[in-house]
Amino acid sequence: MKDLLFPDFLKSFGASLPWDRRLYKQDILGSQVHCRMLAKQGIISREEEELILKGLGEILREIESGEFPFSMELEDIHMNIERRLMEKIGDVGGKLHTARSRNDQVALDERLYLREEIRLIEAQLLELMETLVDKAQASLRAIMPGYTHLQRAQPVLFSHHLMAYYEMFRRDLRRMEGCMEGLSELPLGSGALAGVDFPIDREFVAKELGFKRVCRNSMDAVSDRDFLLEFLSACSILGIHMSRLCEEIVLWSSQEFGFIKLADLFCTGSSIMPQKRNPDYAELIRAKAGLMVGNLVSMLMVMKGLPLAYNKDMQEDKRPMFETVDTVKDCLRVVTQMIRTMEVNSTRMAMATEEGYLTATDLADYLVEKGRPFRKAHGVVAEIVRSCVERGVPLRSLGLEELKSYDEAFDEDVYLVLDPRASIERRATRGGTATSRVMEALEEARRELEELRAALKGAEA
């Protein structure tokens, strides 16, 4: 049976309006500057410029007030705005599209959009980093087991652990700045793919819109989505970092660990088990990190093997772009508040450092300081630990005579080595977990945050 509605379905299938209508502000801004350039170059008259700019201003107000008559028949945001402009001011509105194509127009709109959103993401990242520093400062005396393979390894300051995430997010901030550099070239003026045959002034447009330079090759300008791939990649790595932090929050808030308590706001109950405090929002962020990685992979597959220049495949870049922007901002908002409001159970953390033989490495280092080769010291301590595990006793319970039975180098001062807090303070190399080094890291981070905030404020201005 013939599908009489198939043509309507195809229009809907091929339309990007449900996604790209979010680019209306960038589309209108680019059109306003393009219009002014056309008038400056004598391509349109000053009277026509005035009419077009007035019409674009009215369209902006209509969209923001919810009065704009969007039409799926017109496929995308660009044609919707252009048709509405012509309805308002007549055929003069059609002159706005002189010396440009939708190909370089959408490339411009996406760059303008991502520039704005990256600045917002950077501000959120700074807030998260500052929250980590505040929590680390407030928890400076808390000690906990450090883990490898999820097995207790060596004692560390909880603050040191939190500051590891500060470093991750600092790298994420650098990646966002790298994305901004990739967005610094103006594609407008490239036309459909070959450039335009009007005496336009691309440098004027670039300066007015805040671009550092113009794209050097018209074919590359309209078919490039590297700037989006870089952004999606940066967000994916940021998402992975948030996911790792949230995984630890899930573990730490469990009864088995009991290191932290999440605020009630970030927990939900069970439909049948009244005692449950499920860390749902931390778990959701773990999952949403996968969504962001999926968007990156999706866009990589869209671009893989595309011939130059523009192809309709590239219309599918809107969903992953908008979805990732929304997701990363939402996750940053949640994880920042989750860290800010969580309670630290330093007593439970300290108790955990007394189990698991966390000072075994210190005991081996003690023997090295007494002149034993490290490998021999390692073997001696491994034998001592095996014996303690079999008997279920801690290292600190061993008498000096028993220790001497393993190696005569042991002396009374060995018990200082077996204290978890003393172990922490001995790790005083730069970047280590000693209190003095963590305090240095906190001071350095606060200076850095102040500089980064000033730089971001200057960039926004």
Description:
This protein has three domains: 8-98, Fumarase/aspartase (N-terminal domain) (Fumarase C, Chain B, domain 1, Orthogonal Bundle); 103-198 and 211-352, Fumarase/aspartase (Central domain) (Fumarase C, Chain A, domain 2); 360-418, Fumarase/aspartase (C-terminal domain) (Ribonucleotide Reductase Protein R1, domain 1, Orthogonal Bundle). It has 19 helices and six strands. It has helices at 6-14, 17-20, 24-40, 46-65, 77-89, 102-138, 158-182, 202-209, 218-223, 226-252, 280-303, 318-341, 346-353, 360-369, 374-391, 400-406, 414-417, 420-426, 435-460; strands spanning 143-148, 151-157, 185-186, 213-214, 260-261, 343-344. The strands form three sheets. The chain has a two-stranded antiparallel ribbon. Helix 3 packs antiparallel against helix 4 (46-65) and helix 4 (46-65) packs across helix 5 (77-89). The longest helix has 37 residues, at 102-138. The protein starts with 5 loop residues before the first helix and ends with a helix.
Brief rundown of the structure:
The protein has helices spanning 6-14, 17-20, 24-40, 46-65, 77-89, 102-138, 158-182, 202-209, 218-223, 226-252, 280-303, 318-341, 346-353, 360-369, 374-391, 400-406, 414-417, 420-426, 435-460; strands at 143-148, 151-157, 185-186, 213-214, 260-261, 343-344.
